[in-house]
Structure prediction request, 740 residues.
Amino acid sequence: MRAKGEAFRTIWQKPGDSSIVQIIDQRMLPHEYVIRDLKTWQDGAHAISAMLVRGAPLIGATAAWSLYLAAAAGRDAGNANRELQLAAEKLRNTRPTAINLGWAIDRVLAVAAKCNEQQLVTTLENEARVICDEDIEISKGIGRHGLTLLEEISRRKAGGTVNVLTHCNAGSLATINWGTATAPIYFAHQRGISIHVWVDETRPRNQGSQLTAWELAENGVPHTVIVDNAGGHLMQHAMVDICIMGTDRTTRSGDVANKIGTYLKALAARDNNVPFYVALPSTTIDWTISNGIRDIPIEERDPQEVSHVYGLAGSGTESVQTIASGTSVSNYAFDVTPARLVTGLITECGICEASEAGLARLFPERAVRK
Amino acid sequence: MRAKGEAFRTIWQKPGDSSIVQIIDQRMLPHEYVIRDLKTWQDGAHAISAMLVRGAPLIGATAAWSLYLAAAAGRDAGNANRELQLAAEKLRNTRPTAINLGWAIDRVLAVAAKCNEQQLVTTLENEARVICDEDIEISKGIGRHGLTLLEEISRRKAGGTVNVLTHCNAGSLATINWGTATAPIYFAHQRGISIHVWVDETRPRNQGSQLTAWELAENGVPHTVIVDNAGGHLMQHAMVDICIMGTDRTTRSGDVANKIGTYLKALAARDNNVPFYVALPSTTIDWTISNGIRDIPIEERDPQEVSHVYGLAGSGTESVQTIASGTSVSNYAFDVTPARLVTGLITECGICEASEAGLARLFPERAVRK
Prediction:
């Protein structure tokens, strides 16, 4: 997909200075398009925990690039390996729910363990690049497979508009490019399928209305922002043909952790016979656990994310406090949708049933390993 | 219940000048407590359509007081009846979903039709007062009946805290006092039952975080604000003992129209065996229709309610625009929860099953009339 009229990535090395990694500060979108430099692994850890970057695949990629920055800083100080281990430990704890974070860190550490200290920085730089390139291919794979679902609906509606509902941002901005849930949408739009996206606002952080709406607009995909409360009503009135969501972690049995509120949409989809799909890179599957509601840790975030809302006011941007001071607020960031409510999982390797058997058929090697 | 340390009503005649009706401008809460004068029926119509007042019972009461203002203005101009009919027609169209609006207007017009022009203003003044007094008695009746449900849960939990989830504001502010969904909560709290309320923020207008949280705080009831997305997760983890909602219109078969998003919570309650009750004055029952999803008109409101959020910034209050300019937004204000998802209806006359048979048993005369 494109942004600002150009092909883009969400994370890259600064042209002319490969010691600096650059990201889009997603907290400022859609009102401001701000590029930030990550000069240290601590910058990377802060970018993850403060949500300058978010989305399971991009979190993983940012961690990989941060480990490269750690190795480089360590090399300059003569203790590359110690710095790497320290950074890995700290990065691992920046966000608890997305599994890609630990996956990317483990992958980089494994590569690091096999190379000598002279090659460390170059090797990790290369590994971070490969992780990003692979992620783009994964998104494209999801796009190709998910496209078949949208083509089928389009055929059934004799070319009528396919209405997709999505929650949060499982878009380009959550990955390196193309996104997970959005990849089939972009592919369908490029092929001339008439498509319209209902974009859940996604309180409290408004990733839907502020990120998904932004990237769909940048790419000319028709869309309408709705409050998170609206999806049930739309489904009752046959205004949604398919739901496509992302996920931060999927159990081997097909339970799906995703942005808080996803479960409510899955219930509405089931109640109204609307197909409910989850798009995911296979790196998002946690083969070690089966019961998502019991075993996936759900991050609780700062109450200020609920009590304050960011937007445009007058000539600049600012946050307003919507709730009376001193009010108790709780802020669970994710919920778990049980596999029984998921019509299917769209992965880079194909579409499967959200079940242990379905996933094992698609990924026999990994499923067996556990 | 109380507010600002005093017993209060949401609508009243100005002390010392009965030609003026006063209301709390609910758009400004919780940040500012502003009393507004309604001097003409047009002021009343604006208060309803622009949501200075909201909530089915208070909308009805405001319409009744507006008709009094219309009769008074018409008397001064020598055309009381014409002004009354004109006002009734305009008021009827201010909000389409709440049935109490039409109910209150019809009731006042019926009274007006039976009295001579000399008595008209005094008669309508009296009728508006009676409607308000009756509404308070209705809320108390709902409180008494609903209290039994909370007492039962408290007993089962051996005095442990009863966790109630509510959506929007079906509170004192939606009625004349006590509220519908909140009346059992206030009654339980007064009787020393340990109670805690999960308050749905209720986008787009934030009636939960801005109104329900405010009135619970004024009355010392422990509560926590959550985003609308969170209820499913809480119910999955047994953190909700009962849901109590309000309604703007209930069909004779027990389908419930309420603030958008109510249906999603009902689905989550059913999926997790959490009792889901709807509290309502019997005036909210529409005996003429049976299929709520088909027959209850759902109001679509200004997209600006979604794109802009009101709150505190710096020393004052303001609205920020959260969404990029030009973004398409849809804003359905209500949804319909089918009777099959409703555990029971709490009315001023008792609790019944959400079904034609259940309602007919509780209101045999009215059910028969149709």
Summary: DSSP finds 13 helices and 18 strands in chain A. The mean pLDDT of chain A is 95. The domain at 2-134 of chain A is CATH 1.20.120.420 (Four Helix Bundle (Hemerythrin (Met), subunit A)).
